[in-house]
Design goal:
Low-confidence stretches: 212-224
CATH architecture of one domain: 2-Layer Sandwich
Strand content: 25-35%
Shape: elongated
Strand order of the largest sheet: 8-4-1-2-3-14
Mean pLDDT: 83
Largest sheet: 6 strands, mixed
Number of strands: 19
CATH superfamily of one domain: General secretion pathway protein M, EpsM
Helix content: 25-40%
Distance between the termini: 6 Å
CATH class of one domain: Alpha Beta
Radius of gyration: 31 Å
CATH topology of one domain: Gyrase A, domain 2
Structural class: alpha/beta
Length: 482
């Protein structure tokens, strides 16, 4: 399970996951709060409050940034095999044509095309540059929220997932020969991106001065429309199209609109004035939704879930995140082993006490009591063996510690585990419960665990002391989303 958060003049949150090329969307939320890069404390508190309120516990997270400080440039350079050498070459070449200090930027790239010229292999690259201070701001925000960041990206780069994953928009696949504009409309800006030759090679933000003078007047932006404002949006989109044509010598073939209410008929107005095919994004292929999710509103956050590998987070940074996760798991494993060892010692002490009691001559006459104690002694010995076996399995086999912990917390208060065995595929426990309700409650709890495939009890035996003895078998799922 992943969280996908898009930051702009509001915050869009999508919870979902990808399985067998299908993206499943579980929850979607919009926060009417903008980002202030100088203050992450208030923002982290607000986001955390929303996550708690909506019972969202997912930690793996994608951050998507909308910022006019991002730089996208196309550049022709020799084709190299090593990614580090390509990045260094692009940074050096970009330093010759733009005035920004590129040492203060995170840079990633896409190869648009490779071709031969003058006995040399050349490539056309699309370079994406994100200011380091913005990257570090969102990195720090992730830490404050205690999220595991797997990707920090810009919205325009997320659009590359459409051609790379062969995603259909409105049941149509993009033609690699055409140029497609993707336009996100806000009350105060237009976000304009272009996919050309299967790669995003252009992004700009055009600010809009609306007839609404204050934010309160634009609160009903998605509910009512001023035609003067709509013509302002059309004018800005037209300027973006003309500018793209002037710097790339390529005309826009089609415009896709998202982040805007379809009832405005903005698509028809744009099409009539610009003489272009214009559509609102109404559907994406290979996606399933838990409720009536507005694909148009959460388009970028959804598209980002198709591929999380493209990111400004470098391999070294990802390794650091993995090492941190391993350290946390190791600590949890240590605590589990300590818990098992402590219980093993406690059981040994009980066995020693029982041995003294059983061998006392004065108690021989109390045969029924002694037989019961002997039986309990045998069960305790079996528990020690099971615990020691579990310790060895945790040390030597690939057993998920959360499986053991989940089963442990599923036990009712008056149920004892007399013995158990566990491996990667299943768990077999011999239990003793004080009532049949306890048996049913345990069966229900285990069946509700996300990693359990099936649970069954072969037989239940009623004991003389009104307790119930039985074995319970849990089969684990081979693969499941976390």
């Amino acid at each position: 399970m992943f969280l996908s958060l898009e930051f702009g003049n509001n915050i869009k949150i999508v919870e979902g996951y990808k399985k067998k090329n299908i993206v499943y969307i579980k929850k979607t939320i919009t926060m009417d709060e903008s980002v202030n890069i100088k203050n992450s404390f208030n923002l982290s508190d607000s986001i955390n409050e929303v996550l708690i309120k909506n019972n969202i516990k997912t930690k793996k997270t994608i951050f998507i940034i909308n910022t006019d400080s991002a730089i996208i440039r196309k550049i022709k350079l020799p084709f190299l095999n090593k990614k580090s050498e390509i990045t260094t070459m692009i940074k050096h070449e970009l330093g010759q044509v733009i005035s920004a200090d590129l040492s203060r930027y995170k840079i990633i790239y896409k190869i648009i095309e490779i071709y031969e010229t003058d006995e040399k292999t050349m490539a056309l690259y699309a370079a994406y540059c994100l200011p380091l201070n913005i990257y570090e701001y969102y990195e720090e925000l992730g830490k404050k929220l205690r999220l595991r960041l797997v990707s920090i990206d810009i919205s325009s780069n997320c659009l590359n997932n459409i051609p790379e994953q062969s995603i259909e928009l409105n049941n149509n696949i993009l033609d690699s020969k055409d140029a497609y504009a993707f336009v996100n409309i806000h009350f105060d800006m237009v976000l304009f991106s272009v996919i050309n030759k299967g790669t995003n090679d252009f992004f700009m933000i055009s600010s809009i001065k609306s007839n609404a003078e204050t934010l309160s007047e634009t609160a009903s932006f998605y509910g009512r429309y001023d035609y003067d404002d709509m013509y302002i949006w059309v004018e800005n989109i037209n300027k973006c199209c003309r500018y793209y044509h002037s710097v790339n010598n390529k005309k826009i073939n089609k415009i896709y609109l998202y982040g805007h209410n379809r009832s405005s008929n903005l698509d028809k107005l744009l099409s009539s004035i610009l003489h272009l095919d214009v559509e609102f994004i109404n559907s994406v292929s290979n996606a399933a939704f838990a409720d009536n999710t507005s694909i148009n509103q959460y388009f970028i956050s959804i598209i980002a879930l198709y591929n999380i590998k493209s990111s400004f987070i470098t391999k070294n940074e990802k390794k650091a995140l993995i090492l941190t996760s391993i350290a946390a798991v190791s600590m949890l494993l240590f605590c589990l082993i300590f818990f098992l060892l402590k219980n093993s010692l406690s059981l040994r002490e009980k066995i020693a006490d029982l041995d003294i009691h059983i061998n006392n001559e004065k108690n021989i006459e109390r045969n029924s009591v002694i037989e019961k104690l002997k039986s309990e002694n045998q069960l305790l010995n079996a528990s020690i063996t099971s615990i020691e076996t579990a310790i060895n399995l945790v040390d030597n086999e690939n057993i998920r510690t959360e499986n053991i912990r989940g089963v442990y917390y599923s036990l009712p208060g008056d149920t004892k585990v007399l013995s158990f065995s566990i491996n990667k595929d299943s768990l077999n426990m011999q239990c003793l419960s004080g009532s049949m309700d306890e048996v049913i409650y345990l069966l229900k709890n285990l069946g509700g665990l996300y990693f359990v495939e099936s649970v069954y009890i072969p037989a239940v035996q009623s004991m003389k002391d009104m307790k119930y003895s039985y074995s319970i078998i849990c089969n684990f799922k081979v693969n499941y989303e976390e």
